[in-house]
């Protein structure tokens, strides 16, 4: 679930609402994963993996992260792509995504091959051309990406080589899966939003509560990587004690 690293180079004033939005999204993600783990260990019978409300909750979290990726790309690179900063961030996210795939291959019934971190890394690259295109073109492509899976699918895309597209007639079973169609639309909408609504840094102190939320947002990648092992460890310990 946008999970961004610190940008290389001179420190810039931060866009506070971006940090706060990431912080709230990471809290929501931990809540959702905690509920999923409770179900996985058999402590509850909540319909976390298939209930409409829970699925909407999960989709809203993923959409928020991906939307913020688009906004953050414009903030960081809208005046010109800072390649060193971009490549460092990309390698960190891609490496974290690989760790998730390896870890879930051992810990889960089905590995995560194209989850939120894989999507963030991929979409960050795919979104680069749109940083300079007119916002209306970005919005049009975003709408196309969003609706295409509802209009077209084919067994041609059922194979693993097309796993990232999301146009398979029979979608793969996965606990975390945000393919290009339709999820890339969220990042494009974020790019268009940031192009249409200029983002400016605020210097004023927002207070202790929001500072704490923003601290979570600034460390969202680390929290994403460690929260599930911690939750799993806690629930496994409870299971052994019972």
Please provide a written account of the structure.
- Helices cover 64% and strands 0% of the residues.
- With 242 residues, it is mainly α.
- It is built from eight helices and no strands.
- The chain has one domain (16-241).
- The chain has helices at 16-40, 52-77, 83-107, 116-126, 135-151, 180-196, 208-218, 220-241.
- It starts with 15 loop residues before the first helix and ends with a helix.
- Residues 1-10 have low confidence and may be disordered.
Mean pLDDT: 91
Radius of gyration: 18 Å
Number of domains: 1
> Separation of termini?
32 Å
Order of helices and strands: HHHHHHHH
Mind sketching the topology for me?
Layout: H1 16-40, H2 52-77, H3 83-107, H4 116-126, H5 135-151, H6 180-196, H7 208-218, H8 220-241
Helix pairs in contact: 1-2, 1-7, 1-8, 2-4, 2-6, 3-4, 4-6, 5-6
Keywords, separated by commas or semicolons:
mainly alpha; 8 helices
Structure at a glance:
By secondary structure, this protein is mainly α.
């Amino acid at each position: 679930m946008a999970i961004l690293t610190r940008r290389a180079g001179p420190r810039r004033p931060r866009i506070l609402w971006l940090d706060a939005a990431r912080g709230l999204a990471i809290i929501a993600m931990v809540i959702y994963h905690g509920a999923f783990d409770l179900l996985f260990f058999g402590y509850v019978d909540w319909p976390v993996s298939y209930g409409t409300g829970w699925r909407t909750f999960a989709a809203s979290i993923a959409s928020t992260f991906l939307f913020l990726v688009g906004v953050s790309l414009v903030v960081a690179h809208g005046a010109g792509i800072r390649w060193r900063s971009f490549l460092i961030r990309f390698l960190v996210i891609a490496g974290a995504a690989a760790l998730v795939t390896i870890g879930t291959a051992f810990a889960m019934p089905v590995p995560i091959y194209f989850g939120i971190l894989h999507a963030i890394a991929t979409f960050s690259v795919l979104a680069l051309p749109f940083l300079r295109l007119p916002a209306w073109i970005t919005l049009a492509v975003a709408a196309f990406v969003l609706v295409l899976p509802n209009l077209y699918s084919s067994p041609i895309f059922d194979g693993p080589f097309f796993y990232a597209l999301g146009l398979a007639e029979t979608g793969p079973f996965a606990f975390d899966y945000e393919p290009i169609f339709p999820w890339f639309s969220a990042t494009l909408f974020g790019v268009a939003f940031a192009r249409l609504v200029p983002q400016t840094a605020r210097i004023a102190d927002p207070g202790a509560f929001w500072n704490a939320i923003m601290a979570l947002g600034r460390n969202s990648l680390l929290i994403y990587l460690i929260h599930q092992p911690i939750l799993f460890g806690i629930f496994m310990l409870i299971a052994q004690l019972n």
